[in-house]
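Sample entry (128 residues):
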Amino acid sequence: MAYNNISAFKTEYEFELPKGYVDADGNCHKRGIMRLATAADEILPGRDPRVTTNPSYLTIILLSRVIIKIGSLENEQINPKIIEGLFISDLNYLRKLYQKINLDEDPRIEAVCPKCENKFFVDLRNLD
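Predicted structure, serialized as tokens:
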């Protein structure tokens, strides 16, 4: 079985924090990139002693694994201490983004016209 369309879906998502991470020098970092989570991103933090003693810490470790850029900070520079330093509004924004890109299913359903029997997709995000 060939997987030729592996690049056909998006794996990295740009974001802009509502307030921004303020580093030790007072620089505000607002724009960043989050990648899709892997199974390891979900499983490995459960072994961390900080998570076993405080399950709420899972979010901190998980986000530090999947955020690959915040402002001028990249990859290894983004660690749990950086995520701990975020304002609550920014942490909540990143939680929601994580949920959206990793857990949301396709918001479309297939429908059939009752008159002509034509099949089409309805995007559920546009329904009020």
